[in-house]
Fold:
Amino acid sequence: MAILNNLLKSKKLGEILVDSKLLNPTQLEYALTEARKRNMRLGTALVSLNILSEDDIINALSQQLSIKKIELSKIAIDPAIGKILPEALSKQFKMVAINLSDNILTVVLSDPLNVFAGDALKKAVNYDIEIAVAREHEILRTIDFVYSAKDIIKADNSEHIALNLNKEPQKSTTGVTSATSSVFAASAGNDINEEIVESEDINIIKLVNDIIVSASKNRASDIHIEPLEDEILIRERIDGELFETKKLPKQFINPLIARIKIISNMDIAEKRNAQDSRFNITLSGKELDIRVSMLPTINGEKAVLRILDKSSKINKISESSHIDNITKGKILKLINKKYGLFLITGPTGSGKTTTAYSILSELNKINKNLVTVENPVEYKIKYINQVEANLKGGMSFADILRSVLRQDPDIILVGEIRDIETAKIAIQASLTGHFVISTLHTQDASSTISRLIDMQIEPFLIASAIVGIIGQRLLKKLCDKCKEPYEPNAELLKELGLPENKTVYFYKEKGCPECRGTGFKGRIPIYELLVPDNIIQKLILEKADASLIRNMAVKNGFITLRRYGIIKALEGLTTIEEVLQATQDI
Structure:
């Protein structure tokens, strides 16, 4: 980073251009003579004489002075930041402020060696100055925009969110590192500028921050920003359900979406194709990973932000309070086998990834080589080699898994078995001395067998490879402050297979301020664990129906998801309605 005081001690432009071998001394002398005659600065003279282009000069300055070259046409400028410099000063020295971060003001000039500009800057502002260079015509156009725009997007010193992208700097569409993008407002593109000028009563930066802060406080897993025909609907997914939290006038959709695109390094000009990206923030001491998905709809682009708390601890399976000790003991025994395939199944949003990470954390020992293949990597775990599958770049799970097998792994996590090829490689790996953990989208543990057979995996390979299958769901957890007990009727007890001659209590939701009136706060998992014994393996070889496998397992002590859920309902952790709804197809 070139700070102003250091920069003012550097060489003159002519020396820099000669050192860069863009000019020879004869050309320099000629250009200097012409510059004096025409009363021009050297750089302007070189361009007008067709000796060098403006880009030649900018590139040389950027390299020789170690300063950023900024393409102002590709970034969105917050007028409030630009107006930190007096308008007269900006126009006199052709410079514009574009960013303020950690008390450092980034100022772009066409001539960063102008000593008078540097002196004026030091007197005008009380910040450290970081200098960058850009094309003169782009600076002039930006100056016009900054001082003609209505001051409706303000630099808010009270922002509760700190963009945390500086930990992993990456190239962004702004032409500067992501660390400096946090103060850019959503004001790029003519249509967006027009929308912003009309939106005088809204602070877009603060609005986006408030949306994220609200979701974090409400423990939301996702934020939906949906353009409707005449308004914008903001919804949060809390404990698996979507709740409306805010409505906004439709004209704010363009600046709102643009702001999100900028901080997540998306192409703000692309509106016809879906885009995916991510960014990190620090909020109240917590590190959040925000996954962003943009999807064009007939009413405009819809944004969905998935929130992952990177600072939350992943408990080991042995530390889980949600699994009974008998099931926990069986799982621990299974995952400590030297080889085999251990599957975690359930629909989307059932907590499969969390369970997989709990198992990995349990197995994470210095004498083991653990490798994961994921898309994307959800949580980073020390001492585990985590690989992100680049599906768009042509690197599939199967491609990476082949490479992983050459890395001498002991334990492999395959984020998800999605296709026949990945399934075959995972099973082959589990039969050749590796312990493989993976997830699969199925309704329950027993139907996993049928799914693999449908994927053209030979039954004898399935029977030999699988050491255990977990089926799971997430149920809404009753609020401890307001839940109420009640006695179920005899008909329900009979339906659930519970004794009718004993007093049994279930619990229902009521609602209080603690749970925002919903009666629920948080979620709990329910599990079933299928361990293929000789009888189950024989049924697999015979391609038996899933229901036959389940019934046989139940005879041998298998506890189904529904049964496990009923136990949790009797413990007062959830409602019986939640259990019946979550296990209705089982």
In short: Residues 4-149 form a domain with the GMP Synthetase; Chain A, domain 3 fold (CATH 3.30.300.160). Residues 150-160, 163-202 have pLDDT under 50 and may be disordered. The chain has three domains: 4-149, 178-309, 317-475+523-561. Residues 162 and 282 are 5 Å apart (CA to CA).
